[in-house]
Amino acid sequence: MTRKTTNFQVHLAFCYSSLLLGGFSGAQCIPRNSLTFRSPVTVFSGLSATPIFNNLTTPRGITIDSNQNLLVVERGFGVTAFKENDSTCSNGWLRTIVIQNTEFTQGIQVSGESLYVSTDSEILRYVYDPTTRTVIGNPVVIISGIPPGGELTTRPFLLQPSTNPISILASCPLSENIDPTARDPNSGRSQIRSFPLPSTSSPSTSQDFFSGTLLAFGIRNPAGFAFHPLDSSLTKLWIIDNGASIGNVTGLTDTFVNDNPADELNVAEIQKGKENNFFGFPDCTTIWNPKVDPTGDPQFINFHTGEQFSLQLESERDDEWCQNIENNIPPRLSFQAHSVPLDLKFFNPRHNVVSQTSLPVAWSGDAFVSFHGSFDRTPPTGYRVVRVPFTSSNPIPIPISPPTSKNGYDFVVQATNLGTCPGTCIRPVGLVFGSDGRLFVTSDSSGELFVVSS
Predict the structure, then answer these.
(1) How far is Cα 202 from Cα 212, in angstroms, rounded to an integer?
(2) What is the DSSP string of 145-170?
(3) How far is it, in rounded angstroms, from Cα 215 to Cα 277?
(4) Nearest to 179 by CA among 242, 256, 255
(5) Are 310 and 323 spatial neighbours (Cβ–Cβ below 8 Å)?
(6) For residue 414, what is the enclosing H or E element?
(7) Is the peptide bond before 161 cis (omega within 30 degrees of 0)?
(8) Which residues contact 282 (CB under 8 A, 6 or more apart)?
(9) Which residues have CB under 8 Å from 45's CB, separation 6+?
């Protein structure tokens, strides 16, 4: 007897095969709690981590619109939307295409009916409808002339709607691992600039990247940056940065560079007269473990975690020069070498929203950082999301731990067995909080989107 195949069965088979292929046509629905992580994860006590979607195309940046739809940059594909409990997907998440464009990098922000994304050299604005999760017409170029190419293509940016006029902060990373041009603020490399954001009714003339106000430079890869939610005057910009690979730079031992230099949490003073903050790259870098090789590299045994040393690229920029805060701003907190932080978000729960799934309200004001993980350390490190406790003091909160601390952060979720990474382990990139206090995370190489909740 021949078994009859229904249209519903054909539809299911098509969706399943599309998922396996990592692509899709039209919408896809994934039932709640139907997925498992490709590799096990461990979460902080009292929390849970749950996959929402898998087989995505290198998911990187993530944001959330006014209707609580998740918008994700899938590098090499475009922007996709994820809606929870849609009428066509009442017990799960519906994935739809918003924009197909293989040139998008990582940056994505949304404000009302404007959706912003970055390419290698531009920031674009689309007219966006959060109800239908679609864009209308062609994009407008908001910022052009960002130096293209280089080792890294993150190109994150930040909207500041509390300013008048609204401002946008745009970044550009290094051109190579040790980039001599980064010490020159006119190079455009390893820096962050600020621009007034034109209104949607203004002419579509773009602003050149070099016309923006220089806020910080000498930051090797400003992969994520944010103002603290209690910093109403916007005076301190918190920035994460990735340390360089230095094994072939100064003749340091393999043992030393396995544990150095540190990755960083920096703070730039954004006040009139204090712009053009220089953060040391490429000349200065940061100690994580000064005593890791006292025989091979004894010159560092009296250093402290967080202290700067010179890569000796120019004779006048030695250790003493690097440690002078008049020349170079040291990190406010250090992360373990080769963690590779790629996003930074502050937890600012809405206290009038009661949610049993929210992260602990006691963590309000703390910073959350994604650690992408690195190939440059044995055993590997990273592959986690961490929390940096901040003080609750006004007017400007700061990390609780001192700059010399190795213990200024704790994990939230991480790959269970770091010894198996990289591979199918989570490699977190983008972070965003929902209005209910849940944390949504993209993991690029494993192709996963997941949520952390209580």
Answers:
(1) 18
(2) -----SS-----EEEETTSSS-EEEE
(3) 6
(4) 242
(5) no
(6) strand 410-415
(7) no
(8) 174, 178, 179, 180, 182, 183, 218, 220, 244, 311, 313
(9) none
Q: Residue 453's beta-bridge partner residues?
A: 48
Cβ atoms 172, 223 nearer than 8 A: no
Q: Which residue has the tokens 């924009």?
A: 99
Locate tokens 């009859």: which residue? Answer: 4
Closest CA to 305 of 293, 290, 322, 283: 290
The model's pTM is: 0.93
Count Cβ neighbours within 10 Å for each residue of 254-270 and write b for 16 or more, e otherwise.
Answer: eebbbbbbbbbbbbbeb
Strand partners, 432: 440
Whether omega before 261 lies within 30 degrees of 0, making that bond cis, reads yes
Contact indicator for 332, 266 with CB cutoff of 8 Å: yes
Query: Token digits for 413?
Result: 């979720």
Instruction: Quote the pLDDT of residue 250.
Output: 74
**Shortest CA distance to 383 belongs to which of 39, 34, 105?**
39
Contact status, residue 368 vs residue 348, Cβ threshold 8 Å: no
Nearest residue to 400 (alpha-carbon basis) of 363, 453, 351, 452: 363
pLDDT digits (tens, 9 = 90+) for 362-402: 999 999 999 999 888 999 999 999 999 999 887 789 999 99
DSSP string, 285-335: EE-S-TTS-TTT-GGGTT--TT-EEE--SSTTS-HHHHT-TTT-PPPSEEE
List 354's β-bridge partners, or say none: none
pLDDT, tens digit (0-9, with 9 covering 90-100), for 76-133: 999 999 999 998 898 899 999 999 999 999 999 999 999 999 999 999 999 999 999 9
One-letter amino acid identity for 293?
D
Length of the chain measured in residues: 454
Residues 6+ apart with CB under 8 A from 345: 224, 226, 367, 368, 431, 432, 433
CA 184, distance to chain mean position in Å, is 25
